[in-house]
Design goal:
The chain is an alpha/beta fold and about 260 residues long. It has two domains: about 5-230, Alpha-Beta Barrel (TIM Barrel), CATH 3.20.20; about 230-259. The protein has eleven helices and eight strands. The chain has helices at about 5-10, 25-35, 45-50, 60-75, 90-105, 120-130, 145, 155-170, 180-190, 210-215, 230-250, and strands at about 20-25, 40, 80-85, 110-115, 135-140, 175, 195-200, 205-210. Helix 2 links the parallel strand 1 (about 20-25) and strand 2 (about 40). Helix 8 (about 155-170) packs parallel to helix 9. Bound molecules: 3-methyl-2-oxobutanoic acid. 3-methyl-2-oxobutanoic acid binds near residues 43 and 44.
């Protein structure tokens, strides 16, 4: 059995072999992914991928806890991060209450929350109270309604300031989403904590993708930064079509599948 990563080992990955992170929302996929990845993120993207909503904003704390418990059950040897949903960390008091709920009700090793320097003091408060925090800067999916769309981050000075403020506040790693590779590289070089990229190019200390994106289960569109390692939707459709046809033609079940 592989040994679970620790915060110290994650920090030591800065500039070393890239860290691999993937999202999962249930025990089945968590178990399949676990031997091959360093970290599993129970992202609030589950609201779109799992629940079919248009954005992540209506995700609740109860849903994050339920799905994190499922991932914990499937991937006991993985370092697991639970996303703080939109509206669950508007004040220090609320953020700490909800982060403690995640620690008490799940096996998550850390939480992740979105935002740059404006969140630094809140993050420091969480870290001072024993919570391991992963930051998330750049394109912030939880700002989609406030900003009127998903906006690629272009202000490299602001991103560097954000990364530095989060490092100073005590995060152990930062997700950097949706920016040019050249900017992402500068951001990464400006801090000593690992930067995990998504749509941020290859000069990162790690990469994260949504599990269903890399497996090709989501067909509606493919963001530029996604590489499909499997044509999952096609394979699932072929399989379910064969099952349906065999049931209708009474080819399934055979003797082998009967008592
Ligand atoms: O919720 C999520 O899946 C995420 C990743 C995009 C990093 O935050």
């Amino acid at each position: 059995m592989r040994k679970k990563l620790t915060i110290d080992k994650i920090k030591l990955a800065k500039g070393a072999t890239p860290l691999v992170m993937v999202t999962a929302y249930d025990a089945l996929f968590a178990k399949l992914f676990s031997p091959y990845v360093d970290m599993i993120l129970v992202g609030d993207s589950l609201n779109m991928v799992f629940a079919g909503k248009n954005d992540t904003l209506s995700t609740t704390m109860d849903q994050m806890i339920y799905h994190t418990q499922a991932v914990c059950a499937g991937a006991k040897e993985s370092f697991i991060i639970c996303d703080m949903p939109f509206g669950s960390y508007t004040t220090k008091k609320e953020a700490l209450h909800n982060a403690i709920r995640i620690y008490k009700e799940t096996c998550a090793d850390a939480i992740k929350l979105e935002g740059g320097k404006e969140r630094a003091s809140l993050i420091k408060h969480l870290c001072q109270n024993g919570i391991a925090v992963m930051g998330h800067i750049g394109l912030l999916p939880q700002q989609v309604r406030g900003e009127g769309g998903y906006k690629i981050a272009t202000n490299h000075e602001a991103l560097i300031e954000d990364a530095k403020a989060l490092e100073e506040a005590g995060v152990f790693a930062i997700v950097l989403e949706g920016t040019k590779s050249t900017i992402a590289k500068e951001v990464s070089e400006s801090v000593n904590v690992p930067i995990i990229g998504i749509g941020a190019g290859k000069e990162m200390d790690g990469q994260v993708l949504v599990g269903s994106d890399l497996l090709g289960f989501f067909e509606d569109f493919k963001p530029k930064f996604v590489k499909r390692y499997l044509e999952g939707a096609k394979l699932v459709k072929e399989a379910i079509q064969s099952y349906s046809q065999e049931v209708k033609e009474k080819k399934f079940p055979t003797k082998d599948h009967s008592y």
